[in-house]
Amino acid sequence: MKLIRFGDVGNEKPGIITSDGIRKDMSAFFKDSWDRGLFQNDGIDHLNKILKNISQFPDVPEDARWASCIARPGKVICIGLNYSDHAAESGMAIPTEPIVFQKGANTVVGPYDNILIPRKSTKTDWEVELGIVIGKEARYLNSVENSKDYIAGYCISHDVSERGFQLERGGQWTKGKSCDNFSPLKPFLATADEINDITCEILKAHAA
Q1: Is residue 11 part of a domain?
Q2: Fewest CB within 10 A of the end CB: N or C in the chain?
Q3: β 108-109/183-191 pair status
Q4: Which of 104, 124, 102, 123 is closest to 115 using CA atoms?
């Protein structure tokens, strides 16, 4: 299933993309709720049931804004230097421990929204990343297989950074990565059942 959100800022509505690439408006059955509450309260099962008669739902207007595919993330946790090629091009060693940093929830916007270049920025940069949406609360998971049950789905994310703020102004990564609109999400959330092997999908995207 491919979940989307659409509409003006502050008035977004939930929708899906059909197998034919048509955006459908699901707001008659759901509030703007492609968020943690949906995934933790069997919302996907409910959605699957009502989609058996997908023709009853109106099309989204073609000119409607594409919003972020998820609403109100609790937090955005990122892993830095997570690709060896990127570490090499940055002149940095491959970390022996994951570099973990946060981006503010204010950074999450739609795929075609403007990036707001911060005042006095001279080194705004961007990278394409895999976004993993966690669907329910978890602590101390003890295996990779077990952790898969907590993944709601995947999306494409852009990690926008102001490198001067990040590396030259105290070495605080969050400061360079949490400016407004610095995490566009594109353009849909693919629920976990859509993807059989996420590693294979990453390799195909990298090769393209």
Answers
A1: no
A2: C
A3: parallel
A4: 124
Amino acid letter, residue 65: R
Answer whether 130's CB lies under 8 Å from 202's CB: yes
Residue 177 falls inside a structural domain? yes
108 in a structural domain: yes
- List the CATH number of the domain containing 180: 3.90.850.10
pTM: 0.85
Q: Which of 160, 153, 158 lies closest to 188, judged by CA?
A: 153
Cβ contacts of 54 within 8 Å, gap of 6 or more = 18, 24
pLDDT tens digits, one per residue of 146-156 = 788 888 899 99
Ranges of residues in the chain with a pLDDT under 50 are 206
CA distance 178 to 155: 19
> Distance between CA atoms of 39 and 36, rounded to whole angstroms?
5
* CA proximity to 111, closest of 60, 21, 5, 185: 185
**Which structural domain range is residue 100 located in?**
76-186+193-207
Domain for residue 164, yes or no?
A: yes
First to last CA, the chain: 23
Distance CA 205, CA 134 (A): 22
Measure the CA–CA gap between 22 and 76, rounded to whole angstroms. 29
